[in-house]
Amino acid sequence: MKKALLLFLLIPFNLFAQEDPGITPLADKPNFEHYKWEIGINGGVNIASVAGAIDSTSILSRAGRLYGATITYHFNKYIAVKTDIDFENKGWTINDVQVQTGGTGGTSTQNVTQYLDYFDIPAFLHVGFGNRMKFDLNFGPYVAFLLDNRAFYTDPSGIEVPVTDDLFSNYSSTDFGITYGAGIDFALGKRWSMGFDFLIQKGLKEINAEGLKNTSMDFDFGINYMFGEKKKKS
User: Fold this and answer.
1) What's the predicted TM-score (pTM) here?
2) Could you tell me the domains of the chain?
3) What is the per-residue pLDDT across 189-209, written as a single tens digit (0 to 9) for each?
4) Alpha carbons 13 and 192: distance in angstroms, whole number
């Protein structure tokens, strides 16, 4: 298994290292090395969940969406700093929770869905290998600001019933943690590129009194415009 994984990781490097003698040398092609900046738009989906004090067997991940803008500064052809400014849905579903029944003073067992919407800003080191097609690695921190918090269960008639128990209503207004993952960038021309990133976010901050921490897997697509052409060395 380890040998197969190592071979898989080496394939992109072998492809980028090969040079077809019938093709114009790489130095004559438009590539990321010629530009300092990239700006773009991005969007995609995430699979969010939570870690912490709650029994993990009772928690189901929830699919959400993310979208926003991207800014990248290139130190050289291989190393850059990349920042996303995103709106991102996070949350989860907890099965078999005892919740208060509105107006009656009683309780019932329900599957409760939690929505947490964030203004999310990951900033990471972006290391790329290749020319027109680049394989990149990403690692860095993120900070997020809570925009909306909503929890509910669905009654037998299909109506969403709000849940206001403390477990689902009292969340910190901020979150932070680490982001890491990999991606592919492909040059569409001299100034345009498109990319895909698979990123994992691990929350380091407890976001409520129960000790819960956000986690998510992000599948992020984007299109970027490159500018700030670098001067070629004489």
Assistant:
1) 0.78
2) 41-229 (2.40.160.20)
3) 889 999 999 999 999 999 988
4) 23
